[in-house]
Automatic annotation (TrEMBL):
Similarity field: Belongs to the amiloride-sensitive sodium channel (TC 1.A.6) family.
GO CC entries: plasma membrane
Pfam name, any one: ASC
Name of the protein in question: Amiloride-sensitive sodium channel
Region (Disordered): 514-536
Organism field: Caenorhabditis tropicalis
Protein topology in the membrane: Multi-pass membrane protein
Length: 536
C-alpha cells in the first residue's frame, strides 16, 4: 500500500473558476464589458455565434478605451475584476481538519478567466500531503460562495448576458496532476449554488510505446516547440493553434496564447482573420473554416488520469446551515442562495496501470516467419541462403555485361563438350556392332546350346550327302527339316552321336546370308565325330 499512496499524491490540485461573477467598474460601458467577455471565447464558437457588425462596433469602443488607458489589457482586466481568494473560499478541510485555503491557492488565468490552483501538497503538514484511506471522510472538502448578488441581470441593470457564459451559475473545478495545464471549458466539473457534489476519484496510469518502439506517442516537444515544462498533447495542440493564427493573422486569440508569446487578437480581429484567410468553400455551397490538424502533437507516453464519479445533492440541510452560521458571519438566506459544497476523495486506495506492449517482438516475428515458411513452403535457413545467392547471381548477370558474356561463353563450351561426348559414344557403339557381326564365335556358342537328338553314324552320313550336295538354299532347308523329323524316331539307339539342329536358328542365319558358312563349320566338325565314335 505504501507505493500506491505515494503515487496518489498528485490528486490534490483543483481548479476553481467563477462564472458570471465579474465585478463592474464605473468607467466601463456595458458594450465594452460585453465585448471584453468575448476575449476568452473559443475561436470556432466566436465565429459561429458572433455578429461581425456588432464585433466591429465593440472593437472600436475597445480601441478608444485602450487609447485612454495605455496600461489596460484584457488579461489584466479579468485578473483584477475577478473574485479574490477570500471572496470565493469560505471553508476548507482535509480529512476532517480545517486549514487556510488561501495559503495554498494560487491565482492563474485560464480559458474561463481568473481561476485558483489549490495545491495542498505544498503544505508542511504530513496529514495534508496524502489521503491515507478511502472515503469522503478522509478527502478534501471546499465550501464556496458564488456571490450571485453581484451578477449582471438584464432585467434590473439593462446589461445583456454574454452568450459565452450564460448557461449556468456557480463554479467549475477539475482534478489533475501538478504538471498538467487544464482546460476547464471542456474538462471541468460544474457545481451550482445551493448544492453539494461528491467526486469519487479513480486513478489510472497510462504507459504507451514511443515511436522508436513501434508506438505512436511522444515525451518531447516537436521541433519548433521550445518549452520549459512537461509535454502534454493538449498543450501542444493549443500552442499549434496559436502559431497558426500568428502566421496568418499576426496575432493569436487569448484562449490559445497561454504563454503570452504573441500579441492577443481582439474578438473582431479573430473573426475577421478567420472570415478572410481561413474560410474554404466546399462543394461550391458549404463554407468551412480550416483549423490546423496539429498532427505533430502526439499523445504523451506517460500520463496520470483521474476519473471522477460524481453525484449531486440539492440544497443544504438546516443543521448544516446552522453550523455554518456559527463558523462565520454568514446569513442563512445568503448561504442558501450562494453556497455550494465540493467533496473530492478517492473511492479506493489503488490505481489501474495500462501498459502498451508490442503485439510481437522481433524474435517472435522471425520465429513466426520461419515456422510458416518451413511448414508450408519447406524452406529453411539454408534455403533462404541459397535463394539469396541465386537472386544475387541473377542480379549480377542483369547488371554486369562482363558477367553475361562469361556465362554465354561457358554455356557454349558446355554444349560443345556434350556434343563431342555424344559423338564418341555413338562411334564406340557402331564399332562394337560391326565387331560382333564378323565374329562367328558368338554363333558357335549359340549352336552349342541348342537342343540335342541322337542319330546313328549311317544316318548321319546319309544326311550329310542329302543337304550338302543341294545348291538351292530353300530346298536344302526342306531336306534338313525332313531328316530332322526322321531322326527323332531313333532317340533310344545305343550307338548314337549328338547333333544339334534348331530350325529357328538356321532360318535366322539363312535370312542374314550366313547359312553357308555355318553349315561348313558344322560339317568339318561332324566329319570327325563318327571316327571318334567308331574308335570308341
Amino acid at each position: 500500500m505504501k507505493y500506491r499512496t505515494r503515487l496518489l499524491h498528485p490528486v490534490q490540485p483543483s481548479e476553481i473558476c467563477p462564472i458570471l461573477t465579474l465585478n463592474s467598474t464605473k468607467d466601463l460601458s456595458d458594450d465594452l464589458l460585453d465585448y471584453l467577455m468575448m476575449f476568452n471565447s473559443d475561436a470556432m464558437t466566436l465565429y459561429g455565434r458572433a455578429d461581425g457588425q456588432s464585433l466591429h462596433s465593440g472593437d472600436n469602443i475597445y480601441k478608444q478605451y485602450v487609447s485612454s488607458h495605455p496600461n489596460f489589457t484584457a488579461d489584466g482586466f479579468f485578473m483584477d475584476a475577478g473574485f479574490s481568494c477570500g471572496d470565493m473560499f469560505k471553508m476548507c478541510s482535509f480529512g476532517g481538519r480545517r486549514f487556510d485555503c488561501c495559503k495554498y491557492a494560487t491565482p492563474i488565468f485560464s480559458d474561463l478567466g481568473k481561476c485558483f490552483t489549490l495545491n495542498v501538497q505544498s503544505s508542511d503538514k504530513p496529514w495534508m500531503k496524502m489521503q491515507t484511506e478511502p472515503g469522503i471522510a478522509a478527502g478534501l472538502q471546499i465550501i464556496l460562495d458564488s456571490h450571485l448578488e453581484e451578477q449582471f441581470d438584464s432585467e434590473t441593470d439593462g446589461v445583456t448576458p454574454v452568450f459565452s457564459s450564460a448557461f449556468e451559475n456557480g463554479f467549475r473545478y477539475y482534478v489533475h496532476s501538478s504538471e498538467e495545464i487544464p482546460f476547464l471549458a471542456s474538462e471541468g466539473i460544474a457545481v451550482s449554488p445551493d448544492s453539494v457534489v461528491y467526486s469519487a476519484l479513480s486513478s489510472s496510469k497510462y504507459i504507451l510505446l514511443s515511436s522508436s518502439s513501434w508506438g505512436n506517442c511522444s515525451d518531447s516537444w516537436p521541433p519548433g516547440y521550445d518549452q520549459n515544462f512537461p509535454y502534454t498533447s493538449a498543450m501542444c495542440s493549443t500552442i499549434c493553434k496559436a502559431q497558426h493564427f500568428q502566421k496568418l493573422c499576426g496575432c493569436s486569440p487569448s484562449i490559445y496564447n497561454h504563454l503570452n508569446r504573441f500579441n492577443d487578437c481582439t474578438p473582431y480581429e479573430t473573426y475577421r482573420c478567420m472570415d478572410t484567410k481561413m474560410k474554404k468553400v466546399v462543394n461550391q455551397t458549404t463554407l468551412n473554416i480550416e483549423m490546423p490538424t496539429c498532427e505533430e502533437c502526439r499523445v504523451e507516453c506517460k500520463s496520470q488520469v483521474y476519473h471522477s464519479f460524481n453525484s449531486y445533492g440539492k440544497g443544504l440541510s438546516r443543521g448544516a446551515l446552522m453550523w455554518l452560521s456559527k463558523q462565520g458571519d454568514w446569513r442563512i438566506q445568503h448561504m442558501k442562495s450562494n453556497f455550494q459544497v465540493v467533496n473530492v476523495f478517492f473511492r479506493d486506495m489503488s490505481y489501474t496501470e495500462y501498459i502498451q506492449k508490442r503485439g510481437m517482438s522481433l524474435t517472435e516475428l522471425l520465429s513466426d516467419i520461419g515456422g510458416n515458411m518451413g511448414m508450408f513452403m519447406g524452406m529453411s535457413v539454408f534455403t533462404i541462403i541459397e535463394l539469396s545467392l541465386f537472386l544475387s547471381k541473377i542480379g549480377w548477370i542483369a547488371f554486369s555485361r562482363k558477367r553475361r558474356d562469361y556465362m554465354y561463353s561457358k554455356k557454349k563450351n558446355e554444349e560443345m563438350h556434350e556434343k563431342e561426348l555424344e559423338d564418341v559414344v555413338t562411334g564406340f557403339k557402331l564399332f562394337r556392332t560391326r565387331k560382333s557381326g564378323n565374329d562367328m564365335s558368338h554363333l558357335r556358342e549359340k549352336i552349342k546350346g541348342l537342343s540335342m537328338h541322337r542319330v546313328t553314324s549311317e544316318q548321319l552320313n546319309v544326311c550329310k550327302l542329302a543337304w550338302e550336295n543341294e545348291p538351292d538354299i530353300e530346298r536344302r532347308l526342306a531336306i534338313v527339316t525332313r531328316q530332322n523329323s526322321a531322326l527323332k524316331e531313333h532317340k533310344d539307339h545305343k550307338e548314337s552321336t549328338i547333333l544339334p539342329f534348331d530350325l529357328k536358328d538356321i532360318k535366322e542365319q539363312i535370312s542374314r546370308g550366313r547359312a553357308a558358312s555355318m553349315f561348313r563349320t558344322r560339317r568339318s566338325r561332324s566329319e570327325t565325330a563318327p571316327s571318334a565314335i567308331h574308335d570308341a
